[in-house]
Write a structure and sequence with these properties.
about 260 residues, alpha/beta, Rossmann fold, 12 helices
């Protein structure tokens, strides 16, 4: 399958690398910045800079531009390409609907949404873990079959995209922000950060295997409120997050 990528930032570059290693033919692509495009193509090790009118040579074009740019980019491609029959366009946003690709559909292109539910951090790390990731999709059987072929686990995207995407951010980006508090404590007390990270990893595995309620541990399970008070006193102004999460725990226990 011939692949082109529009938006060769962190997500686009990583997907191009991943799909190339799975045997797909990466034709190339472009970004708004020539420097970003050149750096990405060098890292991928194949493909070339494509003009907008050339992306229709691909079987599938991934649009991994910033969310606000997808519709404008779709319009630009449609203006510069007369016939898009035989080319599929998947945008990679978890927030934008399918119809932002309408200009491409009107030119004969097949359109879909492919949102890998994955934390795209450093590319080498991402490539070791990307296979088997879930991906929210929209657009029919071709999108589903293609995403499965690429090694993802597809599921239909819900209508409420904002809430869906907020859940994704809570599961990854904000989770990292939350863990920064625990790792800050580790640094302050000169204990191995891996001690807290191992604790977090096992807790997440327990949620997946046992469910939220059964995975819960901590002083509230023993009714040890004095210990909770000591935590809040030790955390001082940073105790806000702790108190907020305590209210969630109470809901789980009473649910």
């Amino acid at each position: 399958m011939r692949i082109a990528v529009v938006g060769l930032g962190r997500v686009g570059k990583t997907l191009a690398l991943y799909l190339s290693r799975r045997g797909e033919e990466f034709l190339g692509g472009y970004s708004s910045s020539p420097e970003t495009t050149a750096e990405a193509l060098k890292a991928i090790g194949r493909g070339r800079v494509l003009r907008r009118g050339e992306v229709s040579r691909a079987d599938v074009v991934l649009l991994s531009t910033p969310d606000g740019e997808i519709e404008r980019e779709a319009e630009r491609i449609a203006r510069e390409t007369q016939d898009l029959r035989g080319t599929a366009f998947f945008h990679c946003s978890g927030v934008r609907p399918l119809d932002v690709l309408e200009p491409l559909r009107k030119r004969g292109g097949l359109t879909g949404v492919f949102h890998p539910l994955f934390p795209f951090s450093e590319p080498d790390f991402a490539l070791r873990h990307l296979e088997g990731a879930y991906a929210g999709i929209e657009g029919g059987k071709f999108v589903e079959e293609t995403v499965k072929k690429w090694g993802f686990v597809p599921f239909p995207l819900p209508e409420d995209r904002a809430l869906y995407h907020a859940g994704a951010v809570l599961s990854a980006g904000l989770l990292v922000g939350y863990l920064s508090q625990a790792l800050g404590i580790a640094e302050k007390l000169s204990i191995p950060p891996g001690a807290y990270l191992r604790l977090a990893t096992v807790a997440l595995e327990a949620v997946g295997e046992l469910g939220l309620r059964e995975a819960l541990t901590g002083p509230w399970m023993r009714g040890d409120l004095k210990t909770v008070e000591k935590h809040l006193s030790a955390l001082k102004e940073e105790g806000e997050i702790y108190e907020l999460l305590l209210s969630r725990i109470q809901r789980i226990l009473s649910g």
